[in-house]
Specification:
Layout (H helix, E strand, L loop, with lengths): L2 E5 L7 E3 L5 H4 L10 H7 L3 E4 L4 E5 L8 E5 L15 E5 L2 E5 L3 E6 L9 E3 L2 E3 L9 E6 L6 E3 L4 E9 L17 H22 L3 H6 L4 H4 L24 H15 L1
Antiparallel strand pairs: 1-7, 2-3, 3-13, 4-5, 4-12, 6-11, 8-10, 8-13, 9-11
Length: 258
């Protein structure tokens, strides 16, 4: 599937594949947070747009456009602005994105990243048809608390979603015993988990050496048999390929041939 970024200025935004690492996860004891595969996959599930400049921002608690002040490290260029008031900080992406029919973009802050005093606002953009750019907005959560963005710090994360997936979904609640093929391995897993945690508390050598149960991480059923064929242990989004540079190179080569 194609996801195209059309820069709206002379310089395209700085976009990178989202990394699976997070600073706070690095600091957990023995980096145990990385044992949670869903966190790792979500961290890298898309692309990040990086801030072109370092700056500090603060909200005074009022609702006007002048309630937010932004001070850049190197002047006033490439900085977010107060566009809506109400303590909202607005970043321009300087790009128009296009997805294939049936897909939109989910836009928000970097997954599982936190910033004290500022919260990212999420949106879904109909990029399959809309000839409009979008902004990335953050809401201050408390006044008179300065926040920082460093140069090349991500201010936006995005990834494609199926446009109608939610509206066509038929959610239901059922008793687990109506699906014996699901209930049996679930009960087996719960029993093994309770035993493992109890043995871990007792410092049983087998549990201590294992540290944590890895069946989900490895894509295995509770009995050790293979789970789904499509189990993912690492998300690796591709970097954006700059087609403009490639096209210029081809044109240049053709001119030399002539």
């Amino acid at each position: 599937m194609k996801l195209i970024c059309y820069p709206t200025g002379s310089t395209p935004p700085r976009i990178r594949p989202a990394p699976s690492t997070r600073a706070w996860m690095d600091k957990t004891q023995q980096a145990y947070a990385y044992r949670c595969l869903p966190l790792n996959i979500a961290n890298a599930h898309g692309w990040e747009i990086l801030s072109p400049a370092g700056f500090s921002a603060e909200w005074d608690g009022s609702e006007g456009l002048d309630s937010v002040t932004v001070k850049g490290d190197e002047g006033d260029s490439n900085l977010p602005i107060s566009h809506f008031g109400h303590g909202i900080l607005t970043f321009h992406t300087h790009a128009l994105f296009k997805t294939e029919p049936g897909y939109a973009l989910f836009v928000g802050g970097s997954t599982n990243s936190m910033k004290d005093g500022l919260h990212p606002l999420s949106g879904i953009i109909e990029t399959e048809w809309a000839p409009y750019t979008f902004t990335m907005n953050w809401k201050f959560t408390r006044p008179r608390h300065p926040v920082r963005f460093e140069r090349d710090e991500p201010f936006c994360m995005f990834y494609p979603i199926q446009s109608e997936a939610v509206s066509v979904t038929e959610p239901e609640i059922r008793d687990l015993d109506t699906d014996p093929d699901l209930q049996a391995p679930y009960v087996e897993w719960m029993d093994s988990r309770e035993n493992f945690l109890e043995n871990l508390k007792k410092s049983e050598p087998s549990a201590v050496s294992l540290k944590w149960q890895k069946n989900y991480y490895r894509g295995l059923m509770p009995d050790g048999s293979p789970g789904a064929d499509g189990h993912v242990t690492k998300m690796q989004p591709r970097p954006f390929y700059d087609y403009r540079i490639s096209k210029k190179s081809v044109i240049h080569d053709n001119e030399e041939d002539n």
